[in-house]
Amino acid sequence: MKQIKVLLTFNGFQDPINHNGHDGPILNLLQEKHDFSEVIIYHTPDFADKAGETANEIRKRFACIQADAVNLDGLSDPSNYKIILDCIRPRIKELNQAGRKYYVQASSGTSQMHACWLLLLSSGELPARVLQIRDKKFVTDDQPMIVEIDPTITDFPLARPYVTMEELPDISKERIESVKDKCCIVGKNKKLLTALEDAGQCAQFSDPVLILGESGTGKELFAKFLHEAGHRSNNPLFTLNCATLSDETAESELFGHVAGAYTDAKKDKKGFFEEADGATLFLDEVGDLSLQNQAKLLRVLESKDIIRKGSTKTIEVNVWVISATNKDLQQEIKDKNFRKDLYERLAMDEIELPALNDRRDDIPDLVKALVDKFNKKYEKSKLIDDAAIALLRIHDWRGGNVRQLKRIIHMAAKRAKSQKIVAADIQRVLKPGDDPNAVYVPEPHEGFNLEAYIHRVKHKIILRALELTDNNQTRAAELLGCSSANISKYLKSHPAK
């Protein structure tokens, strides 16, 4: 049995004929796709005459199509969603769906009417397909005038009744902690936890996020955290370092190119935006993009489509953009090195990461995690003592942060002559220029005992000096700047353990 195709539509201002004297959306659609058996034209009471004209014109042009104009009594305000839904729902229930396939024409009527069609279809109340008429200037061989939208496909948003933005659950602390562990973010400092909580909330939306912070503070880890905590975690996270792009290669890397776009372009290439369609794109060091490429990036963020280099065809993309920079963008804007409008688009939400100097209480946990990472990588079993950690806690980490800490731990672990990394091993690999007379002290904390700490450090330093001199007390005393008698006296009252 042949299935009967039925077109449902509202009668709009441009139906049946628009103000230029050309066919309106309904007639335009039927000229392109006229295999319908029936067209039902819903209209407001004041559009009864125009809807009747549309129905008559359809019957005149398409003898095999039955056209009926249906008055929606009570539809006094075509911009009110509730009134539209209240009027159209009873009519939908009247439809005899057996043996019929329904289509909705979503180009006639008000934008609120179009939205109501999509709500009814995506909720399942009306099993139909959506047909949209595209503007003639966008019609090409591979992009026809009539576009069919299937709300049942997995990419289409799921309509959930009785849910508002306020009722959507916030990300839980347990979820934040779980993603934090997955992304190997270490620390319990208050500033770090605040940044994580802010990132967790940002991840529930798809607005662009800008991550700020000094070099080495973990901006790439936070980008991964945002991605894993968000709705796109099942899709890939794409990363592009903008600092590595020249003016010539940036456009191709970001948006792709077609064959012949330039001398070496032998074939078509997708850019990162096209590759990341439906996923997340992390633009690291975005502050290094040239003004010319900043303008191109801004256009994509605003239009949500890209144009490959060497082409004129637009390609729609749905990308969640996360960007990062260690530059002061406000100053860059003042210096006319960065576009203010691009900053405002990238920083729909902004997260600033604390420097390591501002979270020294996290250094012991970071150090132990880095030593564990070293051990796993090189199949070692290194340890680190408290005096070495104390030395790292008071070091000035400006400009290096966690990245510099990692480098120092790895260097010290490789060069340590024993199984345990000690303060002397750390001091050997600290960058040149550090004050050799600096007094390295731990940061006071709750439960800290000064006398016990001084005793422990003194004991460890004396034992280390003896270890370095093969237990020669005279040579050990020379290293420590004291007399051998003091060493001997100390060892009698504090035997080596």
What does this entry look like structurally?
It is built from 19 helices and 15 strands. It is of the alpha/beta class and 497 residues long. It has 3 domains: 4-149, Hypothetical protein VC1899 like domain (Restriction endonuclease-like) (Rossmann fold); 173-352, Rossmann fold; 358-493, Orthogonal Bundle (Helicase, Ruva Protein, domain 3). Helix 6 (190-202) crosses helix 7 (219-229). Residues 162-168 and 432-439 have low confidence and may be disordered.
Offer a concise description of the structure.
The protein is α/β, with parallel strands linked by helices. The protein has helices at residues 25-32, 48-61, 81-94, 111-123, 173-182, 190-202, 219-229, 247-255, 272-275, 291-303, 329-334, 340-346, 363-378, 386-393, 401-415, 423-429, 450-468, 473-480, 484-493; strands at residues 4-10, 38-43, 66-71, 100-105, 128-133, 146-149, 209-212, 237-241, 280-284, 305-307, 314-316, 320-325, 349-352, 383-384, 420-421.
Q: What is the terminal-to-terminal distance?
A: 94 Å
Tally of individual domains: 3
Question: CATH H-level name of the largest domain... which superfamily?
Answer: P-loop containing nucleotide triphosphate hydrolases
**Looking at CATH, which topology of the largest domain would you report?**
Rossmann fold
Major sheet: size, sense and barrel closure? 6 strands, mixed
What is the CATH architecture assignment of the largest domain?
Answer: 3-Layer(aba) Sandwich
Indicate the CATH class of the largest domain: Alpha Beta
> How helix-rich are the residues, as a percent range?
40-55%
Strand order of the largest sheet: 3-2-1-4-5-6
Q: Uncertain regions: pLDDT < 50 for 5+ in a row?
A: 162-168, 432-439
